[in-house]
Design brief:
- The protein is mainly alpha-helical and 113 residues long.
- Strands 1-2 form a two-stranded antiparallel ribbon.
- One of its GO terms (cellular component) is plasma membrane.
- This is PLASMODESMATA CALLOSE-BINDING PROTEIN 3-like.
- InterPro entries: X8 (IPR012946), X8_dom_prot (IPR044788).
- It is found in: Cell membrane.
Length: 113
């Protein structure tokens, strides 16, 4: 019975891996967070390690031009750049970790090992 359980667990974990064997995680805005809180957290992220050039006007991630979408990009950029230096995906409870890639069209979200 134990062997069957371990095999099933191994199979489920293998489904969660991407093609190069790494887990992908993204830091995105929590949809329940008010826009003013997201905006403040986005400003902080952009000033403390996030590369927010893509969400500037004419940037590859400018559209859709919403606080939630821009915050998600900024949060993820900060998280990917800083997670191995003690950075987190918290932003005063404005963000969550997701294993779903939020990239769309020409807007690509990074996921670093």
């Amino acid at each position: 019975m134990l062997i069957k359980t371990l095999i099933a667990l191994f199979f489920l974990l293998s489904l969660l891996h991407n093609s190069d064997g790494q887990f992908e995680d993204y830091c995105i805005a929590d949809e329940q967070t008010p826009e003013d809180v997201l905006e403040e957290a986005k400003k902080w992220a952009c000033s403390n390690g996030a590369d927010c050039s893509a969400i500037g006007e004419n940037g590859t991630c400018y559209l859709p031009n919403t606080v939630k979408d821009h915050s998600s990009y900024a949060f993820n950029s900060y998280y990917q750049n800083m997670k191995h230096k003690g950075g987190s995906c918290y932003f005063n409870a404005a963000a969550i970790i997701s294993d779903l890639d939020p990239s769309h069209d020409s807007c690509k979200f990074e996921s670093l090992p």
